[in-house]
Amino acid sequence: MTATRTDRWITLDGTTNTRDLGGLPTRDGGTTRFGRVLRSDNLQTLTPADVHLLVDELGLRDVIDLRTTAEVLLEGRGPLREVPAVTHRHFTLLPERGQRTDVFAVEEDDAQVRAGLPADWAESVLPRATAPGAEDEPPAVRSYLGYLVDGEENVLAALRTLAAGGPGAALVHCAAGKDRTGVVCALALAVADVETEAIIADYAQTAEVIDALVAKLAASPTYAEDMTLRDTASHTPRAESMRRVLAVLDEWHGGPVGWLTEHGFGPEEQAALRARLRD
After folding, report:
1. Are the C-beta atoms of 241 and 178 separated by less than 8 Å?
2. What count of Cα atoms within 13 Å lies in the side-chain half-sphere of residue 251?
3. Cα–Cα distances in angstroms (integers) from residue 242 to residues 17, 151, 174, 175, 268, in the given order
4. Is the Cα torsion angle 21, 22, 24, 29 positive or negative in sign?
5. What is the DSSP letter of 44?
6. Where do the domains of the chain lie, and which CATH numbers do they carry?
């Protein structure tokens, strides 16, 4: 398997799974650029020093939050919300009690958001989804392909945000930074023509920090039950899961880029996203 560089990790006090998508090999012999797109677990426990590093040293300007509205309300939006230079966008990949998409505005407060949710909004924080035709696939593969069904519009919106971003870095995150974030980042890297094995290796790299990541999430009431019902091994990303997702996309759509093209993310947007990661 193609190795990913260890200097891609970004060490922060408030996260356990933050890294740069730079330094990955492309099919034409190039590499992705550092400081363009970052990936991470949730951000609400960032320290002031973390915020300084991300904003002032790494030039963070866009945050793409893939959590559900319930997760945002239960966990919070984090200190980066107080930084005027950073724009936040919210694109859940999971179904939300009859709402397929949510994208609430930055200026809305939690009370306004809560008022628009059903009374049992917190009972299904992480609903599971399965893509039609993928029922016999392993659980992780079923879920990842399910994002492309239930979260289709928001997958595309997240990638469009990356493609349209100006100078500065963008950061994509969910709760653990491995599943929802992993799928969106895999699609972005495929558009940038990163080698398939490097895409798989980037996804699987979260396994290096899985113990700390599970411990962090288990300490939160929002995720504690989900963490403790299964052992750490079941939370560990496996290379074969992403390899199978990419293989299914090859079989069904001619590859990740084929899926994007079929769903309206066309050549111009693909070129812009490729440039964001490479040029």
Report:
1. no
2. 9
3. 18, 18, 17, 18, 26
4. positive
5. T
6. 6-278 (3.90.190.10)
Residue 236's identity, in one-letter code, is T
Element (DSSP H or E) covering residue 90: strand 87-90
pLDDT of the chain, 279 residues: tens digit per residue: 333 444 899 999 999 999 999 999 999 999 999 999 999 999 999 999 999 999 999 999 999 999 988 888 888 778 999 999 999 999 998 876 543 333 333 334 555 555 555 555 445 455 566 666 767 788 889 889 999 998 899 999 999 999 998 789 999 999 999 999 999 999 999 999 999 999 999 999 999 999 999 999 999 988 888 887 778 888 899 999 999 999 999 999 999 999 999 999 999 999 999 999 998
- Cα 194 to Cα 153, 161, 202, 206, 250: the distances in Å are 24, 20, 11, 18, 15
Hey, what's the torsion of the CAs at 179, 182, 183, 185, to 10 degrees?
A: 160
Q: First vs last Cα of the chain: how many Å apart?
A: 25
Distance in angstroms (rounded) separating the CA atoms of residues 141 and 179: 10
Q: Residue 199 is encoded by which pair of tokens?
A: 């895409």
213 token code pair? 């990541």
Handedness of CA 205, 210, 211, 213 (dihedral sign): positive
Q: Cβ distance 137 to 164 under 8 Å?
A: no
The 3-state DSSP class for residue 265 equals coil
* CA pair distance 88, 96, nearest whole angstrom: 20
Contact 86, 56 (CB under 8 A): no
One-letter identity of residue 238: R
Looking at this protein, which amino acid is placed at residue 49?
Answer: A
Mention every residue, 6+ apart, whose C-beta is less than 8 A from residue 28. 193
Closest to 146 (Cα-Cα) out of 103, 194, 100: 100
